[in-house]
Amino acid sequence: MAMRAPLSDLPVMLEEVSLLAREVTILDHVTLTFSAGAPTVLVGPNGSGKTSLMRVAMGLVRPTSGRVTFGGRSDVPPLRRAIVFQRPVMLRRSAIGNLHYALAAAGVPRTERSKRADELLALVGLSGLGERPARRMSGGEQQRLAIARALAKEPEILFLDEPTASLDPAATKATEDIIQNIAARGIKIVMATHNLGEARRLAGEIVLMHRGRIVEAADTMTFFNSPKTDAARRFVAGELLV
Ligand SMILES: Nc1ncnc2c1ncn2[C@@H]1O[C@H](COP(=O)(O)OP(=O)(O)OP(=O)(O)O)[C@@H](O)[C@H]1O
């Protein structure tokens, strides 16, 4: 059995987090908590800071100021956190080969890897495609394989950056089903999307970002039915936030 960290990374808390790059403010005093439970969906215009927020919350980037803690501790290595980027890069191997690599990196013993890889492929609906060269798979298949790969380390929290961007409706539905399935297993999902229908379908809570700030954070019903800020009202109505 792989050794399990005895402590939880949850909740992931950002307190007054700001991030500057070359004097440009990318995140501006963001305070937000990701707790176990239904998915948190990040929405907001291009460049509003969704990806940057996830990178900071994952612990990949240190904020310029403010604090990030994982289960109350700082500087916790990302053993129980995973992120799938918008354009995941696969190794030049089969789908199964990619999963074996991730399982080895996660410390899963060699004798258990084949069984686990098969389970992960099934979880993302790719059973039967294990021998395909990963880089030859379709965009939607690669996105699902990337999710399976991220699950190899049995994360408590999984960050997904626009997992259905550029997918057609059928592939989007398949990916949404997988996300719901993962959430139902008790893994906290935090994801960015530009698809408000998807946000409505998947989210327990919605966080609207604009110019590096959180302009509204509320449970999904409240966000869509009675947004408090003018920006959120306009966003929900489909107007452009500039
Ligand atoms: N390392 C960096 N150096 C300079 N600027 C950066 C850096 N990282 C991000 N930015 C800028 O910060 C802003 C926020 O980017 P981010 O990718 O977080 O936004 P986003 O909300 O995820 O956007 P999108 O919806 O387009 O994916 C953008 O203007 C981006 O160009």
UniProtKB/TrEMBL annotation:
Listed name of the protein:
ABC transporter ATP-binding protein
Record's keyword terms, sorted: ATP-binding, Nucleotide-binding, Transport
PANTHER family assigned: SPERMIDINE/PUTRESCINE IMPORT ATP-BINDING PROTEIN POTA, SPERMIDINE_PUTRESCINE IMPORT ATP-BINDING PROTEIN POTA
Keyword hit for Nucleotide-binding: yes
Q: Which SMART domains match?
A: AAA
Q: Would the keyword Hydrolase turn up in this protein's UniProt record?
A: no
**Family of the protein in this entry:** Belongs to the ABC transporter superfamily.
Q: Which domain of life is it from?
A: Bacteria
GO MF terms here are: ATP binding; ATP hydrolysis activity
Q: Which organism is it from?
A: Pseudorhodoplanes sinuspersici
A Pfam family annotated for this chain is ABC_tran
Recorded hits in InterPro entries, A to Z, give:
AAA+_ATPase, ABC_SmlMolc_Importer, ABC_transporter-like_ATP-bd, ABC_transporter-like_CS, P-loop_NTPase
